[in-house]
């Protein structure tokens, strides 16, 4: 199982990195900038959580792509953090000049990010920073994010475990009735019969 999880994570990283590599090498792309931004941010988070980066995945390429995307999406605070990280790499002189110019331009922009692009934890409801230290998980409660592999956005899914003393019938009643609900709400059986969650 551990080997399966390791290979699955590696396959996911290669799949996501494919988008970033195309963004850096091809002149035209069908993917939207926000999708590429979420993909690059996911890759950086996974690299922070699992330091063994798979072969042929370049952290420099991910940072370069994210640096360009943050500027176009008005994520100026994150852009400064990315450009500071890029200063630590050994980069060709032509590319380094572009990074230096972009860093100077960032200093004239406001030190803030767009609120709608910050990841939200659906377990604790907290807004997370764009780059979190613990990896692809909430910085407050450490709940792992579940991402959609189409848009790479965080899905509103939360893992929970039913206690052993609660029966399946009682757990189903609690799920469909809501927290602390005294009345049971039936799940919709058939959308054509008009019984869409009527109370008993």
Would you count the extended β strands for me? 0
Mean pLDDT: 81
Major sheet description: none
Rounded Rg: 22 Å
The succession of helices and strands, N to C, reads HHHHHH
Strand content: under 5%
Q: What is the global morphology?
A: globular
Extract low-pLDDT stretches.
Answer: 181-188, 192-200
Q: What portion of residues is helical? A: 40-55%
Q: Count up the helices.
A: 6
Structural class: mainly alpha
* Terminal Cα span: 44 Å
How would you characterize this protein structure?
This protein is mainly α and 200 residues long. 46% of the residues lie in helices and 0% in strands. It contains six helices and no strands. The chain has helices at residues 2-25, 33-49, 59-72, 76-86, 93-107, 168-177. Helix 1 crosses helix 3. 20% of the residues are buried.
Summarize the structure.
The chain is an all-alpha fold and 200 residues long.
Task: Please name the defining characteristics of this protein.
200 residues, globular, disordered C terminus, 46% helix, mainly alpha
Q: How is the secondary structure organized here?
A:
Layout: H1 2-25, H2 33-49, H3 59-72, H4 76-86, H5 93-107, H6 168-177
